[in-house]
Amino acid sequence: MEHQSDILILGGGPSGLSTALHLVQIAPHLAPRILILEKEHYPRFKLCAGGLVADAEIILERLGLDVREVPHVDVDCAHFDFDGKGLNIRLSKRHALRVIRRDEFDAWLAAKTQSAGVEIRQGVAVKNIIPDQNGVTVETDQGNLRAQIVVGADGSNGITRRCILPNNPLQTARVLEVITPVGQSPHKNKDAYFDFFPVPENIAGYTWDFPTQIHGQPMRCWGIYDANILAGNKRPALKELLAEEMSHHGFNLDEYEIKGHPIRWYEPQNQISVPRVLLVGDAAGADPIFGEGISMALGYGAVAAHEISESIQRGEFSFRKYRQRVARSGLGQTLFARWVIANVIYPIKWRWFQILLWRIVKPIVLFVAWIFVLNWSKRLK
Ligand SMILES: Cc1cc2nc3c(=O)[nH]c(=O)nc-3n(C[C@H](O)[C@H](O)[C@H](O)COP(=O)(O)OP(=O)(O)OC[C@H]3O[C@@H](n4cnc5c(N)ncnc54)[C@H](O)[C@@H]3O)c2cc1C
């Protein structure tokens, strides 16, 4: 065995880095006992629109981190529409959404983690994870490592889940993304737009259009999300609907590079740990309504860190109660609520219902969002 460590975190995205940062915050003496393996080198590309909700910023603030150090664009107003009309969210004292680029954000968070005394080995790809009674063997393209505890933070396509829970069912959303110049769109430059017009076409999701920046240059980020809840029905190609939305704003999708990536989303009955190995972030499951996962990834890190530090104190690594701990936390409560909401608002796919939801019963939707979708990050133990 080349290396022996106590806590091995597989994946250096927001969930893995947050787990390490929270562990060091709870128990600073653990810093030299944590090792993060990341297959890429920072700053590495990650397909993501980079929308940060307030909960993500609250978690970062509690870690003593100020995300304004990362290049960003602040969104004044978020529009949730059906066919171009719906409800608007504008907050009185702060931005509705903050948009970062993931190469910059993740590199910044990784640098903060290293400053906290945690080693990150970059360019190491994990190939296999084999837990046994006394520890876990992690096979990589650069040799084998041995750990007391392994955290699977390797994202939606990660290998950890496949190794430890090979027969677990998967709920996977399809997502496409395109970056364009700002152009002549009638959309306001500092606003973000979500449009649920694809739902009656059996797409359980929406198109988005965000402001963003690349190397300081203002750009727009477009995309389409489909939770795949209506997968048994006849559906147009996702690309067609995104092209339709962009054409309303004077953009021809064929002129831009289109990229796709799945997002694994949360189901309450899914297992998220086995003895000595637990999952965080997309590996455990993101939000099914929007595919929002950065704040969730940061939140999983906080919950997992408490679970790990207590298990180290007890010298017992079954993680039998980890799923329950996640479920009882603010993170688990919002994930559960979002799972229920997604399973209501997407299967009732008729036009009239979507018009009612986004244009008519706005105060009810805002109330439900405020109570069940947002403001969960204060309860993360
Ligand atoms: C198109 C698209 C748009 C999105 N937009 C938003 C948005 O606007 N807002 C939002 O909140 N969420 C968004 N998401 C979701 C968000 O990107 C994820 O939820 C988030 O990245 C999850 O973080 P994570 O740390 O769990 O996983 P990841 O960010 O995927 O990080 C996993 C890390 O593990 C590494 N890794 C993987 N396999 C291995 C291996 N075998 N060995 C070593 N390292 C490995 C990867 O290189 C990566 O660094 C979007 C997703 C997509 C696909």
Radius of gyration (Å) = 20 Å
- What structural category do the secondary elements indicate? alpha/beta
What is the C-level CATH assignment of the domain at 3-71 and 98-170 and 266-346? Answer: Alpha Beta
Give the strand content: 25-35%
Number of distinct beta strands: 18
Uncertain runs with pLDDT below 50, 5 residues or more?
Answer: none
Main pleated sheet = 8 strands, mixed
Bound molecules: flavin-adenine dinucleotide
CATH topology of the domain at 3-71 and 98-170 and 266-346: FAD/NAD(P)-binding domain
Helix content: 25-40%
* Average residue-wise pLDDT: 94
With helices defined by DSSP (H or I, 4 residues minimum), what is the helix count? 10
CATH architecture of the domain at 3-71 and 98-170 and 266-346: 3-Layer(bba) Sandwich
Describe the structure.
Strand 10 (135-140) and strand 11 form a beta hairpin. The protein is of the alpha/beta class. The strands form three sheets. Strands 1, 2, 8, 9, 10, 11, 17 and 18 form an eight-stranded mixed sheet that branches. The protein has a domain at 3-71 and 98-170 and 266-346: FAD/NAD(P)-binding domain (3-Layer(bba) Sandwich). It has ten helices and 18 strands. It has helices at 14-26, 54-62, 102-115, 159-164, 238-247, 294-314, 322-328, 330-345, 351-360, 362-373; strands at 3-10, 34-38, 51-52, 72-75, 77-82, 85-89, 97-100, 119-122, 126-132, 135-140, 143-152, 172-181, 191-195, 205-214, 217-226, 258-264, 273-274, 277-279. Flavin-adenine dinucleotide (FAD) is lined by residues 10-16, 37-40, 46-51, 125-126, 153-155, 158-159, 175, 177, 223, 261, 263, 281-283, 286, 291-295, 297. Flavin-adenine dinucleotide binds at residues 10-16, 37-40, 46-51, 125-126, 153-155, 158-159, 175, 177, 223, 261, 263, 281-283, 286, 291-295, 297.
